[in-house]
Amino acid sequence: MRNKDPHTKIYCVHLRTTYTASVPQKPLRKYSNEQFTASSVTVPHSAKESYPQIFYTHQYYISHNAKVTHRAVGCFISIFIGTAVVSITVKLTFRYPSKMAKRKVDTENRGFQTRWESEYMFTKVAGKPVCLLCGESVAVLKEYNLRRHYETKHALFKKAKSQVCDEVCPEKRQLFLNVSLSRNTIAERVDQLSINLKEQLVKKGKDFIAYSLAVDESTDISDIAQLSIFIRGVDSNLSVTEEFLALRPMHGTTTGHDLYEEVSRCVNEMELPWEKLVGLTTDGAPAMCGHRSGLVAKIREKMQEENATGELTAYHCIIHQEALCGKALKMEHVMSIITRTVNFIRAKGLNHRQFKAFLTELETEHGDLPYHTEVRWLSQGKVLQRCFELREEICLFLDSKGKDTTQLRDEMFLCEMAFLCDITSHLNAINLQLQGRDRVISDMYSTVKAFKTKLTLWETQMRKENLSHFPSCQTMKEKLSTSAFPSTQLADKIGMLAADFRRRFADFEAQKSRLELLGNPFAVDVESSPPNLQMELIDLQCNDALRAKYAAVGAAEFARFLPGTMPQLRIQLFTQVSLMNLNKTSHRSRLTAEHLHSILRISSAQSLTPNIDELVEKMGHHQVSPSTSNK
After folding, report:
1. How far is CA 231 from the centre of its chain?
2. Which domain of life is it from (predicted)?
3. Which of 23, 31, 121, 411 lies at a 20 to 30 A Cα distance from 626?
4. Are 182 and 625 in contact, with CB atoms under 8 Å apart?
């Protein structure tokens, strides 16, 4: 029976979503092998007037045949009018595929493109694109969806720009609106700023009397070796320029020859003469320091080919050396237990939450444990200090989890842990002192020399059980119940550390006289100095005005104030000043992508500033993008 009333509708409930189908029209959704129960039937007004006492219920079923793509299904509606039953049969045609359809995107295997990270600020996390700005994920991995999200939810720059213009200079509003802030335009401007800085550095490099390089190679999260190069140069006025030179991704091998090829290409691009290279700082890898095929050896060969008369002074990264000295303690058995304990607590979210709640309940001073990361040299001291202070609470928590805490309760283990905690804090302190810019190598050498003297004092005091500089050890000594504090064994550890410091910094001892001349030329023994410097040193040390100037400006700037009557001393000092000391700055992090080169050059610029006026003049006029100006 065909229902001619267009107002009669069937309301179907499917997966908590209500769909409406007009009888006998086609339903709005394609159905498959499922059963549905309608929730109600809207009866025409005329029927209500004729049958005021009406009750209704109905069901319909959809059967499925895999070989049939169209199937007519009967819908039976039973209307109860008193005791009589009137059945109305309506034929509905359902169109559905032979089997449950899959979304097209499920079979396309779309891949995440790396350019989307810079263009739309998206990255891939657990197979889904996630916005780096707001943290939201997009369901379908399509460029259109990413672009739409970026343009609709993060189009703030242009709005903020116009608002500032309205307040500051409303008459220039249209000029501001005409400035393109599209992704491509911004990327192009960043590249132009980087090129401008590079041109300035090339120009400055032509005035260098001497320069040194610092080279570091590390592997990023994509397993690409990144070679970062820094330069420090001085001109005839002894003005120091210290800048980021280049970032070179190395997709193949990283042998000494490969490193040399990249450094050589960079030096030639910057038009730097090899004969003016006086210093080279590297890490201790064989590819860097190998006697025959390392980077240092290759550069020395190149300088000989160029008939360079100067001497190349090669240094191992001071902070890298200091970090490696900590390995001489040979206390990996202590650190491995601490790391395993921390990982058990921090690796699983449930354990971590329960541990923090446990500390809160006990009202401890600290509310959590930090992670230990091997590449972050300062993290070990923080982890050890926190674990030592929470040692009792950690044992109680592990007991509640059924873990063995025998080693963590052993008194000798706790003594070693306390010692490692204290000595690591001392190593972290010198590590921080060695970091930073605008420091000459003589200052860093003085810091290392002072630490070696401290080690000698600590070894002597430890043998006498004087724990004045080891507070954690002092705490453990007071709590020992049965065993004696192992002062002799720990003093031997300090002696091993001191010996390793002397071995690793032997190259600085070989340059001791030159470093002392730069550090304090007024305290240098004239008689033991080179003959060509003796007369000038006497004149310098007897000049009260220069002595006062040295006290006012420091060693790094003092060389600029030496008079022309002291040429040999000036040459000696500017050579030392040019030695690269940029051994660890924020730029020594794990660099990840080649496109960071321009951003890194701009962000690390110190003595150089992009010439905006020159760039604008080259462009001639403000560039207006039609696609952006109409937005």
Report:
1. 23
2. Eukaryota
3. 121
4. yes
